[in-house]
Protein 1
Amino acid sequence: MSWHSMYKSSKFRHVYGKAGSREQCYEGIPITHSVHDNHFCAVNPKFLAVVTESAGGGAFLVIPLHKPGRIDPHHPKVCGHQGSVMDIRWSPFMDNIIASSSEDCTVRIWQIPDGGLRRNMTEALMILIGHSRRVGLIEWHPTCSGILLSAGYDCKILIWNLEEGVAVKMIDSHPDVILCMSFNTDGSLLATSCKDKKLRIIDPRSGKVLQEADCKSTRVNRVVFLGNLKRVLTTGVSRWNTRQIALWDQEDLSAPITEEEIDGLSGVLFPFYDADTHMLYLAGKGDGNIRYYEVSPEKPFLQFLMEFRSPAPQKGLGVMPKRGMDVSECEIFRFYKLVTLKGLVEPISMIVPRRSETYQEDIFPMTAGTESALSAAEWLSGIDRDQTGASDIINRVFLEIVLSHKQLLKMVFKQQDEIRKLKDELGEKDERIRQLELELKNLRNT
């Protein structure tokens, strides 16, 4: 078979990664030395949050996104936890709300003031107590602002109703530590990976395990739903101790649809999926590179596109929500990379090269907005609703306004440049006139 038959043309074939300049980085951050396999970083269009080294408890920094540069060593922190912070997640609906989990067995909800912190924050908006051991993972519901999930080392997942501040469900179907959780698009299904090497698809409202894969030959570490494709992707380690990815049908976990070995490195491989562009990004802990693929429902299911390379190893990666992209630069994804040795957070933009400066509708389809599609009570009663509709229209209008604003600025700068050139020319002509007047005067005197 010719290689041409396997090749699939793609508008994302030439996507490239662009690291931020030094002026766009955040420096002097005492990034945590914790060995827990989390990202320790969360970002939204207003703030960047990073878990830091802290004596006498857990803490994390919250930095206004528009203030890059060297961070003051005495910059205020969120430091209300009694133990080390293990995970942080911004609410997808409210940019000032962030959740954190800790070794002190609690989950806390914080409200960050506009403009950032002016002093250390110790008082949480809400303290959620229910786990008997440290809480390693938290996950916001994708369509309901009042639902949050937490997974602890007590092998339990708790579903919290934040509108009432109570745990409404306990999922107790894992015999060992939960390594990863992922919601599908409308939040009706939950995929989990566990230390017992099993992949599970769970109905989160009932706690019932709908599908289960016994990955005896593979140690599954991370799992992610692939949008509306009814597929689940896992990353893990094969029996030959090589890192690999596997694609599964969410309705039949008897065997993977396809498996692919990546390399022989040892760091956990983190998957990031962009449902808008159907692109998958793979970044290994301790690696300096980010691989990216295009996902399709037919063969070849995973089409390798390219790889972003960097000499600096990453401890974790934060991901900017789609509404924070720079559409004028055709930016479709943005990472915030933690570089522990340098105390640095570096933005990395994934860009589609386009000649036109107009809005590129084909690479920026309708995306989730900030309006919650459901209340906690509605979701708990069994209602499912995608995060689409009016919020998407608002988001599109917002993107177009941003683009129009940038185009207007370019026109203003261009006009200012032309005015400056005309002023220079006028000055030169004035000087020439003065010289000619002097020459004429000298001729008359002679």
Note: The first strand starts at residue 16 and ends at 19.
Protein 2
Amino acid sequence: MPKNKKRNAPHRGGGGGGGSGAATSAATTGGPHRTVQPFSDEDASIETMSHCSGYSDPSSFAEDGPEVLDEEGTQEDLEYKLKGLIDLTLDKSAKTRQAALEGVKNALSSKVLYEFVLERRMTLTDSIERCLKKGKSDEQRAAAALASVLCIQLGPGLESEEILKTLGPILKKIICDGTASIQARQTCATCFGVCCFIATDDITELYSTLECLESIFTKSYLKEKDTNVPCSTPNTVLHISSLLAWTLLLTICPISEVKKKLELHFHKLPSLLSCDDVNMRIAAGESLALLFELARGMESDFFYEDMDSLTQMLRALATDGNKHRAKVDKRKQRSVFRDVLRAVEERDFPTETVKFGPERMYIDSWVKKHTYDTFKEALGSGMQYHLQTNEFLRNVFELGPPVMLDAATLKTMKIPRFERHLYNSAAFKARTKARSKCRDKRADVGEFF
């Protein structure tokens, strides 16, 4: 054999002698071994991604949940891809690490893999810790989002407690760091609330987390001498996430602590209803409705001194018609504040039904709604699958043990994508036709008068 061919031939045992990790990967996968030129760490990472594109592409884990396995292979294939993604969370390239973090997060959001995650808990925690400490905004966000899903997978217990002990101080530091990215601080605030809700077993740690989140969102409160309307700032999105995370943790606090927080915030929180950011107004309104629910749960004859001024403000928001506000924002705001007003005035909650598989869950309180919304934000479209199979979430929503279904039943329950498309198209046409008829009737009445 000529010397040049012999030198370029891949070794049987894996990597070629010497050279970069990318060359080793190429030899291992059976790809052609080309002459290696000097290149940077960034190039090395890109080369690694070219051989592991199935791992590093988050889109390889579609958000359709368990359908991923039916379409792309077996459980072993999924775990094999996940192992590759977990390895890439330690890559030298920030883009590769971020893509790997998002890929793992998408996979764990769409599938319950408790045993797999349990075995690799320390590796995942170390990767998240490094990315939070050394990464920039997008990477920190991806790491924090993965931490939330990791705790949801494991549920309450020693494993989640250790994750919180490791990541809690880092999350708190980022949240309170004024020089850090607002988007990263926002995601870390949500993550801190979710992980603490799941894992904390130390009451002092719970109180410490509440104080940390309070120190953030209370900056949006009106000062005593300030009569101006609270204006939104770049920090408003952070304040919203901190308020919602704080409200979530308040639902698991002892009654004595809840009373203290109610006394402290009940008269200051309504000032956020005047903020010019629609999302802040909605977050404040829903938080107030939940606080009223908690207060009346502790004292059935609970009395709020400024009830008249509060209901007047809520009614104005529920019927808001200001022209300088976007139509979409006004529609969303009016819908939410109609429900908030009913909760404050009439102690009523409009029950919502969530369907997943053959089961149904009724959301009949603000506490349950806020908890559901929080976990849905973390899991995305994987929420329904987790409600079916995740024991922790089923315990949170009192759904009992998972319902066991055989493969044949599951197959009959699935509607092919093409059929779903036809069904949705027909429904859209029917709605359009009904609206057209309704508009025609209104036009006729207008002409008559």
Note: Residues 1-72, 445-449 have pLDDT under 50 and may be disordered.
Protein 3
Amino acid sequence: MGILENGKDNKPLSLKVLQFLLLFLGLGIALSILSMFMLRFSELKNVLPVVQSRINPCFEQQNSLENWIKPLSNLHHSMNDAELFWRASFVPQMKKLPFKRTPKIAFLFLTRGPLPLAPLWERFFKGNEELYSIYIHNLPSYKPDFPISSVFYGRQVPSQVAEWGKVSITDAERRLLANALLDISNEWFIILSESCIPLHNLSVIYRYISESKYSFVNVFDDPSPVGRGRYNWKMSPVVKITQWRKGSQWFEVNRKLAVDIVTDDIYYPKFKQFCKPACYVDEHYFPTMLHIQSPHLLTNTSLTWVDWHRGGAHPATFGKADVTDKFMKQLLEGQRRCVYSNQTTSYCLLFARKFSPSALDPLLKLSSKYLGF
């Protein structure tokens, strides 16, 4: 039974059927083995850890321009003051920007804990999101409870204890400035307390500050015991008595002066070492340092009104009974005269303090009538 002539297979039909059956059986066994293997592989895949690739796609631009200019949505960071001030000191050398920028006012709230006048400020900020940013420095032990819809939600910077009359208050103000400098859009910086209120709407305040060539820092030479009398001769020759100045800690500075403040390693160490109660750093450091370095950029006046007529170490505080129509008229119409854009004007003050929590309700009732919001 071999191969016959003409190449034809001469095998019996039964043999051909047997070969076909063996081939079919072998194929079935192979498929069964393959099925078992796939099932086993599936079980192992669920047990073995999946190794993620650590290679970033080539199209992810980690150092894109957007990463440098985009404002931080989360203000929390782990930098200490030295690291923060160094990071905040970065200054572009080219004045022409390669992107569109709307300069903003950074409102810097220095507070122990809550902001009892927050509802008034919420009304003030509403609808002007592109013109401002907010930063809050409170005691580390205080846990804010602003709702997620609030403009103050998540605006607390990493803070440290700040005590009135001590250098830690100045540290807190420098810390606020440094955190705000991390946002390249912030051009002007205003220090405020929890007892401050705005005297005009945000559009008026923005125009007033943005169109000024100068920064509003209260600076004057006080020859009395609470002025020059606080000077420590050990600060000479870095700080001379003829350069010693006094002023309010509630000031407004532009970006250039804010950078000068956080990068100062000449005058600040002298104040930290030699200006201790009854020398109060917050009343003398900023006015003196800025007067020495950049007197041509200062108005020598403050934007914040306070009332010292009641006497004492602190200005008057106004509560619910004080905030009346008569009081608001006197506050807005009785302003001092000052120089703005080389012209004398009575339109000098943009903020006022000190207002207690009880003043909130009458302020809300009168704000649209007198404050413009």
Note: Strands lie at 104-110, 132-137, 186-193, 197-198, 252-254, 304-305, 338-340, 343-345, 351-352.
Protein 4
Amino acid sequence: MGSVSLKIGDGTARFKRASFCSSAVNILMLFSVLTTNLFALYAFTSSPKDHQTHLFHNPHKNISLISEHVSSILREIAASQKKLARVEKELLGYETMDISRLNIASELKLFLQHHQLPLGKDSRTGITEMVASVGHSCEKSADLLSQYMAYKVSGPCPGDWSLGQKLILRGCEPLPRRRCFAKSVQKVGLYRFPVSLWKPISEKILTWSGLGCKNLDCLNRKKLSRDCVGCFNITSGYETQRFVKARGKNDFIIDDVLALASGGIRIGFDIGGGPGTFAARMAERNVTVITNTLNVDAPFSEFIAARGLFPLYLSLDHRFPFYDNVFDLIHASSGLDGGDKPEKLEFLMFDIDRILRAGGLFWLDNFYCADDEKKTALTRLIERFGYKKLKWVVGEKTDTAGSGKSEVYLSAVLQKPARV
């Protein structure tokens, strides 16, 4: 069943192929009509002959019986329509959260209310109402979500960014919008770009509420992750040498990687980019890089923004909010680790492949391999995508936390093929 165009005046009315949801609803409606008609046929043909003759000679009783049958058919149709409406909502993902419960905040109820389309059912999508976007796992954290949505409308937002991040890390993403004003922090002492890339950042412009550390010195003494040890010191130490000076064979130099690119590198995406050092080095080479991060144990997002770079506050469980085939380069490190569930890494890799253009580079930077089994599983996963291995190094490094233990890391630069 193809698409049909009907020329009307200056416009064109298009009737497109039905969607899965609308097709399912149509099938159920057809089934309902056939059922009610068969019921009516049975009702009018199953009576004995003498009873039919009796009805023929008693027209009033005949009319009464017919009315009763018609009423029964109408009740069947009404029940079928209610069932179809319920099935349609289930197919379209409606009503995943019960907002009628007493402990649900009024603002959350208002945000999640369904809004009828002004012109009725949309012929392209098959929907009849708009539903607010909120993560499906929010249902499991309804109490926390209701607490997050408890605020004074048009007043200041509560200082609860850590509560919102906790919801995100539980899969409640995206969060609902709120009608309150976020606390303003005076951003004084900011430098002009590109000087801002490597200048000290004032602690007064960062938000420390909900964090264990309350200053940058404390952060630089902690091992925040395998890739972030002293990483908030951007004026001295190793952070000033990253990507331009190698400490081992697993550390690739940015200029060497850029020389491998075909068609040039213009825009990139850094997954789990810490304080934004990779984006800073790329900015020096006129390449725009978006850094994905969360504020886990440190004010990463504000720190990156203070350097004049672009932070994207997003968990790795969220589908990347970019169109297909848009990035020239994607950089990632051990932040990709999916733990003990290989399917999680597999879903993530497919989303990385989706947003990377053909011929683009995927730079896997010092990915920690806990054992040979994990290294083998990662290697097989990468090989499934058919990427060309431009650089591939497996090596050992001493644990940066100072334990002296030797750890295995994989670094690679891979080129996405052009698929037909």
Note: The two ends are 26 Å apart (CA to CA).
